[in-house]
Amino acid sequence: MFSRDNWNEIIEALSSNWFRTTLTAFGVLWGIFILVILLAAGKGLENGVKQGFGGIATNSMFMWTQTASRPYKGLPKGRRYSFKISDVAAIKEAVPDLRFVSPRNQLGGFGGTNNVVRGLNTGAYNVYGDYPEIIQQEPMDITSGRFVNYSDINEKRKVAVIGDGVRREMYDQGEEVLGSYIKINGVNFMVIGTYKKKGNNGNMEEAQKQIYVPFTAFSQAFNRGEDVGWMAITANDGSSITELKGSIMDVIKSRHSIHPEDDRAVGHFDLYEEFSKINGLFVALKGVAYFVGVLVLLSGIIGISNIMLIVVKERTNEIGIRRALGAGPWKIRGQVLTESVFLTIISGMAGIVLATLIIAGINYMMQGMDTSEMMFANPSVDLQVVMTALAILVISGLLAGLIPAQNAIRVKPVDALRTE
Asked: Phi and psi (nearest 5°) for 235?
């Protein structure tokens, strides 16, 4: 029940020596301030790193062929093989929890450079033969025109989507791109769209110097037949590509007569596994932030406990009189604990407000900045962090006042009345 007299007494007790109270409260303010700032900085770092993925489907893996490292079924060690387009349907049938299985062929890059010609301009770029799903696995902004669709796949249209880097190097300023032709290894392709890659990597020049064409047209134009260079595979939401990886490998090994225990024959990169490691790092950083913040806060709590012991000592006569007038132990204990919690919450909330203002200021300064190449973006704390901080403050206040409260109720009325 609210009692104005009790609160007047609490405020009077804490303000009787305001300088001492302020210094003591600063310890709690600083502890909560450090905790919130560390959590916000960790979130900003996490946002910056995840921004670098640019919306890439992180529950994905990339798979390519290597040489067999074991003989199997009469076939020699060191044998090379190729994925086939029929492997895609087999993987989808055997592993139903997959969202996308995208076959891909490539010119340039690791396979050597290729010449792209338009008029008098020439360049060496990565050229990918892809299916339309690749844009959901490797997101990009279509800056003009459109991306490859299934009509292009079915009709084997020789069309291309070029990066902004290719457009800048192969076309004059202001020149119309859509509907023009570029020659890739001597084969003409009509440009139907331009793109810009997302994320930190999206602003790297090489990421904008790529060309996408329909997989079927690529295979026909460059005599790839049914061969597939590599695959991008994404699992459904709620499934882990890391857990499905073994089943996918088994399908490939079975179809290409590879020893079941030959783990070197199929190369792969598990993006989900790497992304999980990054998430684990940020969980650890959050734990470190809480650990450091709580330790700093603990020093402030010790300070409040000390000042409450002094306050109880100074009020020994008052406590004795109240005990003599019939105040029970819980009444005395509650008064001391209330003072402790009140001081802790007020100073802690001041720390939260100060940290929030600084975070807001940082975000305001970063509004006009291009953070796409930065490893830090949008530092913030959510409501859960604030509620956790408040819970820590309440518990800390109770702990800080516990010992002084116990000392207060040990005061005997007769002994207290003898004090000056």
From this structure: -85, 160
Q: Is pLDDT above 80 for 217?
A: yes
Give which of 88, 47, 81 is closest to 67, Cα–Cα. Answer: 81
**In contact, 288 and 295? CB cutoff 8 Å:** no
Query: pLDDT tens digits, residue range 335-389?
Result: 667 777 777 788 888 888 898 898 888 888 877 666 556 667 778 777 777 777 7
| Spans of all domains in the chain | 4-53+276-418, 60-269
Helix H, strand E, coil C: the string for the chain is CCCHHHHHHHHHHHHCCHHHHHHHHHHHHHHHHHHHHHHHHHHHHHHHHHHCCCCCCCCEEEEEECCCCCCECCECCCCCCCEEHHHHHHHHHHCCCEEEEEEEEEECHHHCCCEEEECCEEEECEEEEECCCHHHHCCEEEEEECCCCHHHHHHCCCEEEEEHHHHHHHCCCCCCCCCCEEEECCEEEEEEEEEEECCHHHHCHHHHCEEEEEHHHHHHHCCCCCEECEEEEEECCCCCHHHHHHHHHHHHHHHCCCCCCCCCCEEEEEHHHHHHHHHHHHHHHHHHHHHHHHHHHHHHHHHHHHHHHHHHHHCHHHHHHHHHCCCCHHHHHHHHHHHHHHHHHHHHHHHHHHHHHHHHHHHHHHCCCCCCCCCCCCCCCCHHHHHHHHHHHHHHHHHHHHHHHHHHHCCCHHHHHHCC
Task: With 0.85 as the threshold, say if the pTM is over it.
Answer: no
User: What are the pLDDT digits (tens) for 85-128?
Assistant: 999 999 999 999 999 999 999 987 644 566 789 988 888 888 99
In whole angstroms, give the CA distance from residue 386 to residue 180: 56
pLDDT (tens digit, 9 = 90+) per residue, 265-313? 999 998 888 888 888 888 888 888 888 877 877 777 777 777 776 666 6
Q: Could you tell me the two tokens for 286?
A: 């959050």
> What mean pLDDT value characterizes the chain?
81
Top-confidence residue, 2 or 100: 100
Q: What are phi and psi of 256, to 5 degrees?
A: -115, 20
Q: How far is the CA of 328 from the CAs of 11, 317, 366, 398, 417, in angstroms? A: 22, 16, 57, 19, 17
